[in-house]
Amino acid sequence: MTTVHFTCPDCEQTIEVNDAMRETILDAGCPVCTAAAAEEHFAVTCE
Predict the structure, then answer these.
(1) Boundaries of domain holding 9
(2) Cβ–Cβ under 8 Å, residues 44 and 4
(3) What pTM value is reported for the model?
(4) Rounded CA gap, 45 and 29, in Å?
(5) How many folded domains does the chain comprise?
């Protein structure tokens, strides 16, 4: 199973996200502090 985590470059919060959440974060920014997000802030891990 593939898991995607977002780590904010500003507040450093890490959250597990699904595809819809990933798209929203790319559009709207970090859900915690609203900092801009980019592809490099997402990490994919395979379990």
Answers:
(1) 1-29
(2) yes
(3) 0.88
(4) 22
(5) 1
pLDDT tens for 10-34 read 999 999 999 999 999 999 999 999 9
Which residues are CB-neighbours of 6 under 8 A, at least 6 positions away?
14, 15, 17, 21, 22, 25, 30, 37, 41, 42
The reply to whether 13 falls in a domain is yes
Q: Which pLDDT score is estimated for 1?
A: 67
Contact residues for 20 (Cβ-Cβ < 8 A; gap 6+): none
3-state secondary structure of 17: strand
C-alpha to C-alpha distance for 12 and 2, rounded to whole angstroms? 22
| Residue 11 within any structural domain of the chain | yes
